[in-house]
Fold this protein.
Amino acid sequence: MDQFDAIVVGAGLAGLAAAYTLAGAGFEVLVLERGDYPGAKNVSGGRLYINPVRDLFPGLLEKAPLERYIAWEGITLMAADRSVQMSYTGRELREEPRQSYSVLRSRFDRWLAAQAEKKGATILTGIRVDDVIKDSRKVTGVLAGGEDLRAEVVLACDGVLSLIPERAGLRTPGMPRDHAVGVKEVIALDAGTINERFHLEGDEGAAYLYVGDATRGRFGGGFLYTNKESLSLGIVAGLGDFLKDGQSPDVPGLLDRFKNRPEITRLIRGGTPVEYAAHVIPEGGFRALGRLWGDGILVAGDAAGLALNIGFTVRGMEYALASGCLAAQAVLRAKEAGRFDADTLSVYERLLEDSFVLKDFRNFQAAPAVMENPRFFDHYPETIGDLLRDIYAVPAGPKERLYPTLRKILRPGEIWSLFKDLKAMARL
Ligand SMILES: Cc1cc2nc3c(=O)[nH]c(=O)nc-3n(C[C@H](O)[C@H](O)[C@H](O)COP(=O)(O)OP(=O)(O)OC[C@H]3O[C@@H](n4cnc5c(N)ncnc54)[C@H](O)[C@@H]3O)c2cc1C
C-alpha cells in the first residue's frame, strides 16, 4: 500500500494547477490521469483569460505555449439566410499584459504537466481511478488499477462527468439541463493565410462567437478562434433545450451544417482538419455547483461545476486553474493544522468566495435562466436580420420610407417583448 501526502485525480487544468502548487510547497503529490498523456482527453474551445489567474502562478503563465493574444472580438447573429456581425477591438486588448489568448489544450496541458513534474509531482498516465477508499466517513485514498493508493487528502479534478465526488457522497449525478455538449475541430491553416483572412498582424488573434442558426435557433452557439497555425471551430449545444421536446442535439451534424454556412466556409477554405473532439460542459452555474469539500477530499474545476456561459464569454479554464490552486492552498492550511477533516478543509470554500471564482458565479447566478430564453437564439437573429435586409434593400420600384419599414418589423407587441427581455437581462 503506497502512501502520499496528496492524490490528484485528473491531469486537466484543475489537477495540474493543484499538483504544481502542492509540489512547489514540498508535498509528495501523485497525479493519476486516465488519458495517455495530459491533454489527451481534454477539450476546450480554446480561449483562456489570463488576467484573473496571473497572480496565482507568479512568473508561470508568461512562459506558457499560448497561441495568439485576442485583439479582435466578434459576435454574429446568424439567421437562416443572412447574418449580422459586430466586431470589436480596443487599445486595452493590445496592451501588455494581454487579457486573453487562444490555446491548444494538447500542447498547453502537456507543458503544465512538465512544470508540475519539475516541482516534484509524480504524474502517472493511462491509469483510471475507479473508486475512493474511505475509513469510516473520511476519504483516505483511491482505488486505481486494482491497487489501494493512500493519501492524507484526495483532490477530485476529474472533469465534468466526475465520478469521484459521487463515490465520496458529495453529490448525485448531474441533470442534463445543467450541461451542454461541445464538438470541436482544429483546422490547420498557415499563419499568413490566417492573418490575411482575419485582418490580423503578428501575434494578434480573433475570437468569434455565432448565435442563432448555428444551433438551429436553439440554446448554444458556434465559435471560431485563431491559433498560430490553425483555427479552432466548434459548436456548443445546451442539452436541456434539445431534450425538452425529445430531440437529439446531433452536435456533429450541427457542426457540419455550420461549416457549410457561406460565412464560415470562406474562413476555413484550404484548411486541413487535424483534430476532432467532443465533450460535455457544465452550464448550470451557481445553482448547480456541487459540494466542494468533505472529510479528506476537495473538488475543483469542472468536477465541481465551475464553468460559466454568459453568452459573450464561455469560461471554464481559468476557473479550473484557480480552483485547483486554491484547493492546494486549502490543503497547505490543513497540513499546518495537522487535520484533513471536512471542517479544516472547508477553508477552500472561503478561499473561492474571496477570489474571483465564486464572486463571478454569484454575480452571474441568473445567467442560465436568462440564457434559456429561446428568443435570443431564434427570434432576434431572424428579426434583426430581416430589419437590415429591408433597410439595405433597393427594389426595382420605389424604396419605402425607413420609418414604415421599421414599424413593419418593430410592431407594438414586439417592442413590449423586447422590453421584457431587456428587463430580464438586467439580472446579468
Ligand atoms: C467545446 C468546448 C468549448 C469550451 N470552450 C472554452 C473556452 O473557450 N474557454 C474556457 O475557459 N473554457 C472552455 N470550455 C470549458 C473548459 O474546457 C473546461 O471548463 C476545463 O477544461 C475544465 O478543466 P478541468 O481540469 O476541470 O477538467 P478537464 O480538463 O476535463 O480534466 C479532467 C481530467 O480528468 C481525467 N479523468 C476523468 N476521470 C478520471 C478517472 N476516473 N481517473 C483518472 N483520470 C480521470 C480526464 O481524462 C481529464 O484529463 C469549453 C469546453 C468545451 C467542451
About this structure: The two ends are 50 Å apart (CA to CA).
